[in-house]
Amino acid sequence: MTTTGLERLLAGNSQHLRRTRLGLIAHPASVTSDLVHAADALMSAGFDLRALFGPQHGARGDKQDNMIESDHSVDARTGLPVHSLYSDVRQPTPAMMKGLDALLIDLQDVGVRVYTFVWTMALAMEACRDAGVRCVVLDRPNPIGGAIVEGRLLQAGFESFVGLHPIPLRHGLTAGELARWLNAERSIGCELEVVACDGWQRSRWGNETGLPFVPPSPNLPTLDSCTVYPGMVLLEGTNLSEGRGTTRPFEIFGAPYLEPHALSDALEACGLPGVRFRPCWFEPTFQKYAGALCGGAQIYVMDRERFRPVQTAVAILRAAHDQAPDRFRWREPPYEYEIDNMPIDILWGSDALRLGIEAGTEVEEILAGVEDDLEAWKAGTAPYRLYD
Question: What span, in angstroms and rounded, lies between the C-alpha atoms of 326 and 243?
Answer without folding.
Answer: 22
